[in-house]
Design a protein that fits this description.
four-stranded antiparallel sheet, seven-stranded mixed sheet, globular, alpha/beta
Length: 258
Amino acid sequence: KIIMTAQYLLGAAAVAEIYKEYDCFAYFYNKYWTINAPLYLEKALDILLLEKLEENAHVLDVCCGTGNVAGLLHERGYNITGLDGSSLMLDYAKENAKAVEFIQADARDFNLGRKFQAITCLFDSINHLLNQDDVLLVFKNIYEHLEEHGIFVFDANSLSSSQDVDLSDFSAVESNEVFISQGSYNSIEKLITYSLTAFINEDSKWVRYDNKIYERYYEEELLISLLKKAGFRNTAYTYGADIGIEPFEDRVFFTAWR
């Protein structure tokens, strides 16, 4: 049985409430967790996606987070739309990529009324979906928003890498903020729990925030089967090590065509 937390229950509340845990995480995610990742992800997209797209192609970045990858792709001339469930993540995204259109919506339940030549979902966003039904909902939504012969590219933490995942405590201490992350892994449920604690100096008073972020590891063949169930054809995956993406050697990159 997979742990299901209330903030992820589709329809349980407004999108802003469902993803409130990510609002608490947004500041530190933007400042500490995305320092180099967008450049490595851009390199992977160069190999797996961008050479297949025409100039000015319309691309949807699902679970865009703080908009770093969307900003890089916009600078290269693509028409980018970013979508995420967290309002504060999107606040940072609008600062990081001012010319990009950003939309707040749940990746499992959105309808933009238009289609795209390519869709991405990066930085192990798929691992944040805690059950197969939710993964399938996202894949179906993405399929419906792709043009005919459009391509979907996403990455995920490989199941094999769960045995060696770095769960050491991470901390950042600055004059007006302290951030501590502690990870634990449940090998039976293939679930990582990141317990996050932040102390923020607000108006000369230190305020503590606590929240949890979850990631589930999926077998590569299971994700391929869900892609096919959603309607995709010509599905494939490769590892970061096979395409020279460091330090994402154990990350799996999937491609699927409509």
